[in-house]
Design brief:
Layout (H helix, E strand, L loop, with lengths): L1 H9 L1 H36 L4 H18 L1 H9 L7 H35 L1 H7 L2 H22 L1 H14 L4 H48 L5 H30 L5 H53 L5
Helix pairs in contact: 1-2, 1-11, 2-3, 2-4, 2-11, 3-5, 3-7, 3-11, 5-6, 5-7, 5-9, 5-10, 5-11, 8-9, 9-10, 10-11
Length: 318
């Protein structure tokens, strides 16, 4: 959020344009996200039989619902001229919720693809052990791990807000510079770790599962199973396209390597853009479910049942 103020200081004309564009965009994202994710929660939580696949998507929708519910605070922040007036507690809570959504979503996407891969590769084991109780335990671990990582992620924003203050109110310049350099290195290390844990490593696991699934489908000729596989691919692409700029620009922000004024303005604008993409990511997922979700719920179970029959009866799949 501190980057917003920097972008507006560089160009006053940008202030009015950013007010209008971002307030309209966030308001639209709030409406779409709350209605869409609320619909998914209603369907998967109350109207669908309690099986493993709906549990994954129920928690994805819950994470997005919580995330988009904080959008009115962002709208008020923009309306006040990109100045936060709700206190430091709510400021940090907003950052934690953003990070919590990122980690929860990527971990759930990884688990979904791993679960699908196991169901196709070991259908007998999956039918005997793949239960809602086990899924609930996995979901609990995901939420706890995501929360633990998110609580550490808020320190990055403390660094961003305090570094500018230290540059102005420096008593002992050498001591301040040394402390700032030390914190800068720590923050860069944390950003790198969060990028690996919340982006790169899950991406590698997802790609591995996707390759194994594609090879399995080609070998077994189960054309029905390609539909949920395509849904997986769409969800993965949406997530990574929306969150990649977020990681890239905030790594550049923490590194602070923008000596030229033009580069600094470009960095500020990039952060403005990168901050808005995750909100639209939370809106696009319900749209995917509206067009493909019900078909996905049925196809996935049909694929597992078909694959089970192949292994149990020794007959080729139709």
């Amino acid at each position: 959020m501190a980057a917003y103020e920097g972008a507006l200081i560089h160009n006053p004309v940008l202030m009015d344009m950013t007010h209008i564009i971002f307030m309209m965009a966030y308001s639209l994202a709030f409406l779409l996200g709350m209605v869409g994710n609320g619909w998914i929660i209603l369907i998967t939580g109350f109207q669908v039989k309690k099986t493993v696949p709906p549990m994954w998507f129920l928690n994805m929708a819950i994470a997005d619902f919580i995330f988009t519910s904080f959008l009115p605070f962002r709208v008020s922040y923009i309306a006040l001229g990109f100045r936060w007036s709700l206190g430091s507690v709510m400021y940090k809570l907003t950052i934690i919720v953003t990070s919590l959504n990122m980690f929860t979503r990527v971990f759930l996407l990884t688990v979904i693809n791993t679960d699908h891969c196991i169901s196709m590769a070991c259908p007998v084991w999956s039918r005997n052990h793949r239960s809602p109780r086990l899924a609930s335990l996995v979901i609990l671990v995901i939420w706890l791990l995501s929360l633990a990582l998110s609580l550490q992620y808020r320190d990055i924003w403390d660094f961003m807000s305090s570094s500018s203050e230290w540059n102005v109110t420096s008593g002992n310049l050498k001591s301040v510079q040394e402390n700032l350099l030390l914190r800068k290195r720590r923050m860069m290390a944390r950003v790198a770790i969060h990028f690996l844990v919340g982006f790169l490593v899950p991406l590698a696991l997802i790609i591995t599962c996707y390759i194994l699934l594609a090879a399995k489908l080609r070998k077994s000729h189960l054309t029905q199973s390609r539909k949920p596989l395509n849904v997986h691919l769409v969800l993965i692409l949406i997530f990574y396209l929306c969150w990649l700029p977020y990681h890239v620009f905030y790594f550049l922000q923490v590194s602070g390597d923008a000596p030229h004024s033009v580069m600094e303005k470009s960095l500020d604008m990039g952060i403005l853009f990168a901050d808005g993409l995750p909100y639209f990511h939370s809106c696009l997922t319900p749209i995917v479910f509206l067009s493909m979700g019900q078909e996905f719920m049925g196809c996935r179970e049909n694929a597992c049942n078909c694959q089970n029959s192949v292994h149990l009866e020794g007959e080729p799949a139709e």
